[in-house]
Amino acid sequence: MNDREIDELLNNAKVPQDPAEEVLGRIAESIAGLLRPVSPMPPRWMLAGGVVLVCALVALAGAAGMGFFGIAKMSGLERGAVFSALGILVLAAASELVNAMIPGSRRRFSSGGLLAVTTLGLAAVLAVCFRDYRTTHFVHAGLVCLGIGVLHAIPAGLFSWLVLRRGFAVEPISAGMAAGTLAGLAGVGMLELHCPNFEAAHVLVWHVGVLLVSGGLGASCGWWSSSSSANRKAAAGR
User: Fold this and answer.
1) Distance of CA 92 to the CA centre of its chain
2) Which residue, 18, 41, 205, 208, is most buried by CB atoms nearer than 10 A?
3) What letter does residue 104 receive in the DSSP assignment?
4) Are the C-beta atoms of residues 41 and 47 closer than 8 Å to each other?
């Protein structure tokens, strides 16, 4: 093909025309019927405060039902150290979860980093506070505490989702892990209020283990949600 033939091909090509005004009007009318006004989301500090309150209430309600034996046995220094650390970690996890649910928000940690920092920080504080190195009924007593902690983490995660349900997780697995980390802290808080077993191995393995199990469950829920959404889109595109 020479230059003249290319020029003729381009000159004879039909240029697509803009759609008619009537067509644009019908499209606008059909879309307008589906649109609804949406109120803005509350500010970040209010959302973070809401999920922090959820975690505190779940922990307190659980301990109230089972007994505040743990905090009653602690010394004043232990109470201050343990619950100050829990409070700081809950605030940090709540902030990261809110950012994960608002697209475009800046995140200080990845969800994996958040879980790792939270786990190590909490373990360090507990290791300093509790130095009883016996291992009485280690597995049996530990499994009971692990189960109780996770059972309290689940409602904390569900209620936190209700607070943030108007948000949107761009990365569902990451958001799920952040939610699981926060919920796990609620479970650990309940155990520290209730459990009078201050053996170091028990606290470090089974109480802190609630964080890891809850974080993993949260990531699994995020993966399931992402997979279900992808399957629905694939089915709709067929």
Assistant:
1) 12
2) 208
3) T
4) yes
Is 77 a member of any domain? Answer: yes
Q: Are residues 162 and 202 in the same domain?
A: yes
Dihedrals phi, psi of 99, to nearest 5 degrees: -65, -35
Q: Read off the pLDDT of residues 120-134 as tens digits, 9 standing for 90 and up.
A: 999 999 999 999 999
Kindly give, in sequence order, each residue whose CB lies less than 8 Å from that of residue 190, ignoring residues fewer than 6 positions away. 58, 59, 60, 62, 63, 148, 149, 152
- Of residues 211 and 14, which shows the higher confidence score? 211
In a domain, 233, yes or no: no
**Residues 61, 176 share a domain:** yes
d(CA 158, CA 183): 9
Residues 89 and 185: beta-carbon distance below 8 Å? yes
Residue pLDDT, tens place only, 74-88 = 999 999 999 999 999
d(CA 67, CA 7): 88
